[in-house]
Amino acid sequence: MKTIASISICALLMITLATPWSTSAESGGPSASGTYRFVLEDDFSKYVEFSARSDERGTTTGQMTFRDEAGGSADDPDGENRSERQPAEFFMTANLNSLKIENNRALLGGTVADSSDRRYIGRWIQLVVEDNSQVREMPDKLSWCFCQPDEGGWVPADAELREDDGAWWKWWATDYDREDDRGVHSVNIIPGNRRSCSDFPLTSYEFAEVRIGEGRIQVRP
Q1: Taking the alpha carbons of 75, 76, 82, 88 in that order, is the dihedral positive or negative?
Q2: What are phi and psi of 46, to 5 degrees?
């Protein structure tokens, strides 16, 4: 069991979640679960719990909860302009609906369902975890971010080509000289067509160590 946590918050976010969660110990499809209590540079205690599982059809269900004694920003849901005064404790819950696993890392995605700051409700959340239970002296790690859902709008097109449908094209870029290269999917640029935060290769996510932390992460391919 890991007793030291490492975590980074993308979008300059410093908040936390909490509510009951179920473990993934039972048999089944790919799963990721964990619980952490930690302290960042702001010296406020934070707590996160999550659990998600995919069935044989690839459908993912799960929940993430997060709580932060430091509270949330009164002006900016992304936490970029946090108030100097000490706000009330912040909490948030999210329904998870996607799970991608590579080795000991997992990428989970979902939507905020409830929050003490109602401006977070409906936002997408992305959580990346790393299970280092098999590596001695190596802490488990976390990283997450929040994304604003797309709004519908104008579809990019060439004004001189009436039948231009380039914005709808899709491709997968890979390294020609590497058979093991998983590649990168093209970015969807159709407004209102995205359903989650943008995905990146799991090896590209960075994790920052917390000042104090304890907990456990489990990733089961």
Answers
A1: positive
A2: -135, 155
